[in-house]
Amino acid sequence: MTDEHCQRYLEDPEANAAHLAECEACRALAATLDNPPAVETGSTPVTVDLNALPLAPWEGASYRPWALIVSLAGGVFLLTVAVCVAAGTSITKAVTSSTGTFDMLRDIIRMTGNAAPHAPVGWRIAAILLFFGINGVLVLLLRRPPRGIDA
Known about the structure:
Layout: H1 3-11, H2 24-34, E1 38-41, E2 44-47, H3 66-87, H4 91-97, H5 99-115, H6 121-143
Antiparallel strand pairs: 1-2
């Protein structure tokens, strides 16, 4: 028995099943894994059913708090209506009075789009390098293995 053989068995038990014939420690470990775990509660051990445990979010749990989201959105809408009523105006008048602000934002975006081709060459090169640099960092972060139980 060597630690290298044990390590290979622990990494891939199916491919290294022959290792159990030569290693008593790994055979004992495999025997404990086949039996369901028991928890000592006082004097009698209790068997734990692992399938009855709740799923963690990364294991495919599907609980979504839609009721909370819808109730919060409704509360924000009711608060908006209450503020408009207290101010003595209607919601449509409040929304249409701010369309000038939206026109100004649209004009700023249009001017920025027209100014980009006329920017200095150094700024354009810096923008391209930033684009590829940020995307490269994001790709590297996505390629990292997730941190979970094995971490």
